[in-house]
Amino acid sequence: MDLFKHSTKPNRLHNFLYDLIIKTNLFLIIVDVLIYLRHNRYIHKGGVIVTVKKSRLFIWIIVTAIVTAGITYSIVKPKEVSIAGNGDPFQKLRSTYDILQKGYYKDIDTDKLVEGAIKGMVESLEDPYSVYMDVEQAKSFSENISSSFEGIGAEIQESNGTILIVSPIKGSPAEEVGLKPKDVILKVDKESIEGLSVNEAVMKIRGEKGTKVNLVVRREGVGELNFTITRDTIPLETVYSEVIEDNIGKIQITKFSETTGEELAKALTDLQEEKVEGLIIDLRQNPGGLMDQALAMSELFVAKGENILQVEYNNGSKEVYKSENEAAIDLPITVLIDGGTASAGEIMAAALHQSAGIPLVGEKTFGKGTVQSAESFKDTSSVKYTTAKWLTPDGTWIHEKGIEPQIKAELPAYANLPFINPEIVLKKGDSKTEVNAAQQMLKALGYEEVSVEGYFDDSTEKAVKDFQKQHKLTVDGKITGETTMKIMELIQSKLQENDTQLEKAISVLKEKM
């Protein structure tokens, strides 16, 4: 238990001085009385001393007591610090700083004290998107929007006191191991991250290429999952294009960084040279990024004069952004969205649907409807804070609600199965979450005889041995190492071949072509 010292009570020295003075003054009063009695006439009646000059004695005792009390109070009176604001809201803060600098029992790091005060000030807003970033955190934030960086490649945010995945980045280690939007991160390398800010969590998760980090996450409807992830360089490229079936062009946008607009323009030029007859824009698993990029990119598809975005400030005023593009792209288009489509991704999805009539296919988006700005200090630390709400072209605020697609489409159930760590061994007799995931993967790969109960039984062992024989692996009936990696590799390939959301988007697009 902490030992508290209440500043309004006398300390030991005060108590000692108080006792000493009281006892000394009591002794002096007795001496005064004796001296007085010796020099004045008195008589003794019934055990009571009666003096001729009683009033003088009484007055003398009262005066002595008052003087003594005044001296005592002046010594033991607790020291008070004036923190009256006098209209200055920062007077209390400065007074607290002075108190700690003068009276704290250890040396104080002034920089930490000041940074702690700034951090506390921003945290009091109770806004997960407003944060103070020290020098290292500000550097990390800048890298995330302007260049490649080393880490696991996942956008995270704070929500109701927890850190959750917004979306893994395409081709990143986070995507490869199977992290999903809205997975709640509980631990990083066996340490709880409860109470940490987003930036503090990021600093724990990021690291040099080739190093490993262990995450424990909680997934709704599944429970706790364990992921060991090898960090890598997360590339700058954010736009990927290709020509798929029936001369349809597909563009996937993974985030909105400083170069994304240029990348999109080049991808569109390349596809036009291929003479594509329709276009699918894939915004799935896109965590967002820079608003100005979302505006510029949306403008390519929205006719001049149509709304792209509205921004509402705290005084209620609104700023409306309209397209100024004289020649919007004239092709049949559909847009793919899901629960990992957030922020700038939602801006673009809403603009293309509401102002260009482009249908949205997939699942409801994440739901982030606020705008942030970042201000840097001389030491390169910075504060990122929410400045406004953003609204869709028709004035809807989608914050914490998301955008519903016009055509709903889900991925196969095995798309949501968790990553299985190749370092663990699953064998006959085991009963755990990983066994259940492995059984579902085997069933999806065509091994129908396997039971899906989460218990590694005879049917599971037989299915594993059959799988190992088929793929020329060591046949021992255990799921570990190369066997685990091969199972997950084949599941990923199957998912790419059976992208039911993309198939739906193609179907919708063909109706317009």
Fold and architecture overview:
It comes from Metabacillus elymi. This is Peptidoglycan-binding protein. The protein is an alpha+beta fold and 513 residues long. It contains 14 helices and 21 strands. The strands form 5 sheets. Strands 5, 6, 7, 8, 9 and 10 form a 6-stranded antiparallel sheet that branches. It has a 6-stranded mixed sheet with strand order 12-13-14-17-18-21, with helices on both faces. The relative contact order is 0.08. Residues 1-11, 41-55 and 71-78 have low confidence and may be disordered.
Strand content: 15-25%
Return residue spans where pLDDT drops below 50 for at least 5 consecutive residues.
1-11, 41-55, 71-78
Q: Give the strand tally.
A: 21
Largest sheet: 6 strands, antiparallel
**How helical, in percent, are the residues?**
25-40%
Mean pLDDT across every amino acid position: 85
**CA distance, first residue to last residue:** 73 Å
Rg: 36 Å
Strand-pairing-aware structural class: alpha+beta
Backbone shape: flat
Instruction: Please report the number of helical segments.
Output: 14
Domain PDZ: 134-220
Transmembrane segments: 20-37, 57-76
InterPro entries: ClpP/crotonase-like_dom_sf, CtpA/B_N, PDZ, PDZ_6, PDZ_sf, Peptidase_S41A, Peptidoglycan-bd-like, PGBD-like_sf
Protein name: Peptidoglycan-binding protein
Q: Summarize this, please?
A:
With 513 residues, the protein is of the alpha+beta class. It is built from 14 helices and 21 strands. The strands form five sheets. Strands 5, 6, 7, 8, 9 and 10 form a six-stranded antiparallel sheet that branches. A six-stranded mixed sheet has the order 12-13-14-17-18-21, with helices on both faces.
